[in-house]
């Protein structure tokens, strides 16, 4: 692999104090889901308000399937009650604020419905690992959650436990036309966790990226450029070698991230990554 590395430490003014307030945790009552619940609470403790959400629906509206939806609704409420008991057992001394919500529809529908009324900072969900993104908690709809949600999503592999947000790798194709609030999670992480952020890009097909020309609203500790045609391997290997606590994907625009957010590529990335992935909002 031909590699070109460029590093630069950037000094910035004092960061505006932004904090996390509300977090959605998606659950399907599996072990992977409970691992994501634990990851969220270990990371943010009792300083935020949580919405523990299970969504359910049958795909048609025949009379028989309406009865099935009634059954799914009861199962959803029972499962949420079970998760709450488990949380109390795991954190008996932590005064947590958790709103429990059973919602009809897809996970994306549920997120948008909640976000329409009250703004959330993050969605946190688990993945089921080696079998790929189609086995993320909500089956094939998880790909849609990650690519199209209006709230940033952290997807947590089942083997991951929270060890801090010390080292973060932000991957970008060099686009600079992001919305004003897209990078809010990174600003908040630097404020709360003192995170160090590396900005990583992959240059291929002869296209050059001017990272230093980009205007980030957070402190960049290092800029890194790599050259390789295998985008997924390059990103994953770099994050693993850098011992990253979090890989961050920017919203798709042009260049390699247009391909990166293609279902087959995102499936491979989530399957391969051994660390949590934060997908920034695509609003």
Protein topology:
Elements lengths: L21 E5 L4 H14 L4 E8 L6 H28 L6 E8 L2 H11 L4 E5 L14 H8 L4 E4 L10 E5 L12 H10 L2 E8 L18 E6 L3 H11 L4 E4 L6 H5 L2 H10 L4 E3 L4
Question: Describe it for me?
Answer:
It is a single chain. The protein is α/β, with parallel strands linked by helices and 283 residues long. The chain has 2 domains: 135 residues, 3-Layer(aba) Sandwich (Rossmann fold), CATH 3.40.50.620; 113 residues, 3-Layer(aba) Sandwich (Rossmann fold), CATH 3.40.50.620. It contains 8 helices and 10 strands. A 10-stranded mixed β-sheet has the order 3-2-1-4-5-10-9-6-7-8, sandwiched between helices. α2 links the parallel β2 and β3. The radius of gyration is 19 Å and the shape is globular. It starts with 21 loop residues before the first strand and ends with a strand.
What average pLDDT do the residues reach?
80
Can you tell me the number of structural domains? Answer: 2
CATH topology of the largest domain: Rossmann fold
What's the CATH superfamily of the largest domain, by name? HUPs
Helix and strand content put the structural class at alpha/beta
Assembly type of the shown chains?
A: single chain
């Amino acid at each position: 692999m031909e590699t070109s590395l460029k590093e630069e430490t950037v000094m910035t003014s004092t960061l505006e104090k932004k904090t996390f307030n509300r977090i959605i945790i998606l659950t399907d009552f599996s072990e992977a889901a409970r691992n994501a619940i634990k990851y969220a609470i270990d990371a943010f403790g009792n300083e935020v308000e949580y919405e523990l959400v299970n969504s359910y629906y049958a795909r048609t509206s025949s009379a028989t399937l309406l009865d099935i939806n009634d059954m799914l609704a009861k199962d959803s409420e029972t499962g949420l009650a079970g998760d709450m008991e488990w949380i109390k057992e795991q954190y008996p001394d932590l005064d947590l604020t958790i709103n429990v919500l059973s919602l009809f529809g897809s996970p994306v529908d549920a997120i948008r419905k909640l976000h329409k009324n009250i703004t959330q900072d993050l969605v946190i969900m688990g993945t089921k690992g080696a079998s790929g993104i189609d086995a993320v908690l909500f089956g094939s709809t998880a790909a849609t959650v990650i690519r199209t949600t209006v709230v940033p999503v952290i997807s947590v592999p089942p083997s991951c436990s929270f060890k801090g947000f010390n080292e973060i790798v932000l991957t970008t194709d060099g686009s600079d036309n992001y919305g004003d609030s897209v990078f809010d999670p990174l600003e908040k992480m630097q404020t709360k966790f003192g995170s160090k952020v590396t900005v990583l890009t992959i240059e291929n097909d002869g296209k050059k990226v001017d990272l230093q020309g980009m205007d980030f609203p957070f402190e960049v500790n290092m800029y890194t450029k790599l050259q390789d045609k295998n985008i997924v391997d390059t990103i994953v290997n770099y994050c693993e070698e850098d011992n990253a606590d979090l890989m961050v994907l920017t919203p798709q625009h042009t260049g390699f991230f247009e391909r990166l957010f293609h279902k087959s590529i995102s499936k491979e990335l989530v399957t391969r990554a051994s660390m949590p992935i934060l997908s920034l909002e695509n609003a």
